Amino acid sequence: MPDSLTVFITGASAGIGAACARAFAARGDRVVLAARSTDALESLAADLNGALGAGTALVVPLDVTDAQAHLDAVAGLPDGWAEVDVAVLNAGLSKGLDPVWKNTVEDVDRMVDVNVKGVINGLRALVPGMLDRGRGHVITLASTAGHTVYPGGVVYCATKHAVRALTDGLKVDLHGTPIRVSAVSPGMVETDFSLVRFDGDRERADAVYADTTPLSAEDVADAVVYCAHAPAHVNVQELLLTPRVQSGFTMIARGEAADRVEGR
């Protein structure tokens, strides 16, 4: 892999995706910013290109649930950007916190389409070029939810179990090739994740992170960059990270208990 990488990031308009873009760019890599929110992408690209030099970031409007659009987006990358070294398949979401039989059809379809089909579409679009070039790295954003289930999050957990299976299966399918495959699986991270889950209910979303210290998007981005820039012979199969206040995937220390954990 070259010292300076070309990194294709889905869900790059906010949260972990945007943090990954900033972290890779700060290290000297070039980033392809892919998401549906064109205005947010343009703003991020302007910041990166202004601070780090023109040609640091490229905007690619993309709905990851559209398989043909994903193929077209990769095929349409301009000269100098087409040789993608690292694919960070980050786009994902959760909707609702209801028992599985109460999930709406729309919420189920949205989670499966973005979290599962979005990853498959990314693999179909990006892996063939990596094989042709004889180098590349696919990094999926999985979750501690892919290791367990919790009340109200069953469908979301099922999609993240699927992401882990896709990641592990891709490594098997690529056995004997130079392509690396990694999953980064964070626990509680304070982003707009809960705001999306609760349909914009800020009070309910803020309560998820109240009186405790979750991971930040930047913490997760550090892990992603580590995987991508590990020595060429090293494949980080999965990097599982949680905040210190989180135990057993669903246990979160809060208030005085969180203060003791943080050593304050």
TrEMBL record:
<dbReference type="Pfam" id="PF00106">
    <property type="entry name" value="adh_short"/>
</dbReference>
<dbReference type="GO" id="GO:0016616">
    <property type="term" value="F:oxidoreductase activity, acting on the CH-OH group of donors, NAD or NADP as acceptor"/>
</dbReference>
<dbReference type="InterPro" id="IPR036291">
    <property type="entry name" value="NAD(P)-bd_dom_sf"/>
</dbReference>
<keyword id="KW-0560">Oxidoreductase</keyword>
<comment type="similarity">
    <text>Belongs to the short-chain dehydrogenases/reductases (SDR) family.</text>
</comment>
<dbReference type="InterPro" id="IPR002347">
    <property type="entry name" value="SDR_fam"/>
</dbReference>
<protein>
    <submittedName>
        <fullName>NAD(P)-dependent oxidoreductase</fullName>
    </submittedName>
</protein>
